[in-house]
């Protein structure tokens, strides 16, 4: 079975809409690893994700804080590894307890690949022009099948 697919979005709204769709199907323990250059749209994706999860309020970029926590029906933990110098910094802020439970989404996940669990969904966003993005979604055998089906369904309609 193929374990990846690609979507193209033509506006930040379309990227957020995809995030929102995943947010509506989010479950406790879902882990999303985001990669892609600065300005790719990772944070906008997370804004949509939060909206889909029923989280009210503004979702900003955690670049300077490493982690933002949002309370909701399922809590959302939004990490950004960009400014992390070592895994140690993460243990210091309590990665172990934060990383457990809720939905975890990590920007710049490729900085510390060993911290990304096997069941994670990987989303890699590439800039193709000012408003066009290619979004490659991949997963493993360990990724819950239900969310893979939802992603495949979404891709069929887009
Ligand atoms: P990152 O977190 O990856 O650095 P951001 O989400 O902060 O990226 O910023 C993405 C920027 O690209 C925003 O200014 C957004 O308006 C713009 N943009 C243009 N087209 C798209 C698109 N198709 N998807 C997402 N963002 C887009
Ligand atoms: Mg960002």
Describe the secondary structure blueprint for this structure.
Layout: E1 4-9, H1 12-24, E2 31-35, H2 42-52, E3 67-70, E4 76-80, H3 87-92, H4 95-98, E5 103-107, E6 121-127, E7 133-138, H5 145-156
Parallel strand pairs: 2-5, 2-6, 4-5
Antiparallel strand pairs: 1-7, 3-4, 6-7
The protein binds adenosine-5'-diphosphate (ADP) and magnesium ion.
Residues 9-12, 14-15, 36, 38-44, 107, 131, 133 line the site of adenosine-5'-diphosphate.
Describe this protein's structure:
Helix content is 29%, strand content 24%. The chain starts with a strand and ends with a helix. A hairpin with a 5-residue loop joins β6 and β7 (133-138). The chain has helices at residues 12-24, 42-52, 87-92, 95-98, 145-156, and strands spanning 4-9, 31-35, 67-70, 76-80, 103-107, 121-127, 133-138. It is globular and about 40 Å long. The chain is of the alpha/beta class and 158 residues long. It contains five helices and seven strands. The protein has a seven-stranded mixed sheet with strand order 1-7-6-2-5-4-3, with helices on one face. The structure holds adenosine-5'-diphosphate (ADP) and magnesium ion. Adenosine-5'-diphosphate (ADP) binds at residues 9-12, 14-15, 36, 38-44, 107, 131, 133.
Cα radius of gyration in angstroms:
14 Å
CATH topology name, in short, is Rossmann fold
Distance between the termini: 21 Å
| CATH classification, class level | Alpha Beta
């Amino acid at each position: 079975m193929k374990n990846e697919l690609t979507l193209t979005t033509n506006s930040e709204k379309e990227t957020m809409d995809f995030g929102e769709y995943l947010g509506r199907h989010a479950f406790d323990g879902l882990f999303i690893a985001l990669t892609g250059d600065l300005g790719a749209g990772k944070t906008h994706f997370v804004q949509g994700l939060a909206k889909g999860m029923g989280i009210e309020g503004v979702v900003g970029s955690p670049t300077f804080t490493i982690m933002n926590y949002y309370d909701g029906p399922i809590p959302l933990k939004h990490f950004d590894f960009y400014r992390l110098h070592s895994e140690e910094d993460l243990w210091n802020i309590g990665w172990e307890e934060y990383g457990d439970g809720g939905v975890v989404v990590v920007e710049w996940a490729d900085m510390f690949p060993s911290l990304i669990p096997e069941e994670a969904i990987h989303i890699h966003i590439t800039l193709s022009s000012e408003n066009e993005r290619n979004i490659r979604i991949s997963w493993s055998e360990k990724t819950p099948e239900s969310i893979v089906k939802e992603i495949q369904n979404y891709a069929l309609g887009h």
